[in-house]
Amino acid sequence: MKVVILAGGFGTRISEESHLKPKPMIEIGEQPILWHIMKSYSYYGYNEFIICCGYKSHSIKEYFADYYLHRCDVTFDFANANELTIHNNVAEPWKVTLVDTGLNTMTGGRVKRIEKYVESETFMLTYGDGVCDVNLNVLEEYHQKQDKIATITAIQPGGRFGILDIEVDGVITNFQEKKREDGGWINGGFMVLKPEIFKLIKDDETIFENFPLEECARRNELVAYKHHGFWQCMDTLREKKLLEELVITEKAPWIKW
């Protein structure tokens, strides 16, 4: 099963770094978050990727063009006709298709543009800025069992702030940290889709999260796989530092490889 990753946005909310590179190429523990996402899929046996590029797409293309060289020990012998010797092979078992889906194309339009690469197969779709410890094999099995057009991984991010009970005189009578379970379920990405989804995408202006998914819901063709484990997006510099700390301290739940 192919994995489609949306990696073409501007990443304006983390502009401290995205002005230099696309958000999926921002590094966590010396590797781009895109690499972390791909390693997660690869762990469960999904090794064929279609990456929807857009903003600074050359950065992603150059990364994969040099990937093998950067991951190996090499000797350059300039005295012997610039001979190159590879000492070890740490290449991934990946097939990666990089598609320029346009600079200002919306998420639905990006998905529509890679239809010819997916062909008539069921495929996985996720965003290039979030990691999760969901069991992707179980997610696929759930999708097959439900037999709907779209399955999304639903997560509960919870609230960022505590709850205060304040009396009229300003005295706080209760302070309670907001629990994850107190929040509603949202789309956490990590979706499984039948090819029928392409028929619900009109053009480059289509936002995938709007009409296509809303229409699936109206037709009772959208189901949620509830994930109670770890999930974290990287929208801000604060969230990047959080993810990086988890990697550095070897406490990153999504790293199973």
TrEMBL record:
One Pfam family linked to the record: NTP_transferase
EC number(s) recorded for this UniProt protein: 2.7.7.33
Domain Nucleotidyl transferase span(s) in chain numbering: 2-203
Gene Ontology MF term list: glucose-1-phosphate cytidylyltransferase activity
Any one GO biological process: O antigen biosynthetic process
Keywords: Nucleotidyltransferase, Transferase
Enzyme class (EC, first level): transferase
SUPFAM superfamilies named among the record's database cross-references: Nucleotide-diphospho-sugar transferases
Name this polypeptide is given: Glucose-1-phosphate cytidylyltransferase RfbF
Organism of this sequence: Acetobacterium woodii (strain ATCC 29683 / DSM 1030 / JCM 2381 / KCTC 1655 / WB1)
Gene behind the chain: rfbF
